[in-house]
Amino acid sequence: MKVAIVTGASSGIGQSAAMQIAGRGTGVILTYGNNAQGGLETAAAIEKEGGTAVALPLDVGDTRVFPAFHARVVEVLQGTWNRTTFDYLVNNAGIAHTALFEDTTEDVFDRLMRVLFKGPYFLTQKLLPLMENGGAIVNTSSSSATMSGPEPGYSAYASMKGGLNVLTRYMAKEFSTRGIRVNAVSPGSTRTRIADDAFARFPEVASALAAKTALGRVGEPDDIGKVIATLLSEESNWVTAQNIEVSGGYSL
Q: How many Cα neighbours within 13 Å face the side chain of 133?
């Protein structure tokens, strides 16, 4: 059985991606940050559908914990799947913070950088020796980093995602010697719990965003999760170094 690691899978896009990947017959190691209950619920939902999943804690914004996480992954691969390697990695864990340029503090900037850019960079570096040749990686970016996406308040967040887009291409170039494909997905506005569950707290926001979206609604986690699963699959075995915008035509 093939095995995927999906970070930030306690809710939203990561949860959907984990479930979509598991639904295609792949085992899943999923991670959670502050939402342990959500991570365990995702694993339980996968198991209920006949899949195999293990939920592990991970703070993607703290590279000091990566060696211990690597060791735990080795244990889980051996104990659950009798394997020493895994096949797929989804760098999805993230946070969101909006502030106008002049109001963005160094603390906010540094936290966004650690979680959205430095974390995926060095977590991938740490896990790469465990990846099978011919595997695949998907990085979750954002339409805020595209030409169509700029909105006031996202200068720091979108800059980190823009860096992740560049990193995706360099990963694809360097990892190609091992047959490992690397792509990114850039969701538009998606109904998740990000930004302290902003969609639940401000339901009027969804209507305004839907009005700016060509297909007339806000995205749902499964809209993106299905694309992530497809990019990992053999259906996409000739696709690498791409950034797929999955936004329903935001600002089209």
A: 4
CATH code at position 76 = 3.40.50.720
The residues, any chain, with a CB within 8 Å of residue 58's CB and separated by 6 or more, are 7, 31, 32, 33, 65, 69, 93
Q: Would you state the structure tokens that stand for residue 201, as one six-digit string?
A: 């707290």
**Residues near 29 by beta carbon (within 8 Å), at least 6 away in sequence:** 3, 4, 5, 6, 53, 54, 56, 73, 76, 77, 86
96 SS3 class: coil
The closest alpha carbon to 89, from 120, 66, 62, 116, belongs to 120
This prediction has a pTM of: 0.94
- Write out the residue range of the structural domain in which residue 83 sits: 3-246
What's the one-letter identity of residue 64? R
Q: DSSP label at 239?
A: -
* Cα distances (Å, whole numbers) of residue 42 to 18, 108, 245: 8, 29, 25
Neighbouring-strand partners of residue 89: 5, 137
Q: Would 252 be classed as within a structural domain?
A: no
**What is the per-residue pLDDT across 183-229, written as a single tens digit (0 to 9) for each?**
999 999 888 765 555 555 566 678 888 898 889 999 999 999 999 99
What pLDDT does residue 30 have?
Answer: 98
Residues noted as catalytic? 157
Q: How long, in residues, is the chain?
A: 252
Q: Give dist(CA 154, CA 101) in Å, integer.
A: 8
Helix intervals (H) in 60-139: 66-81, 106-113, 119-127
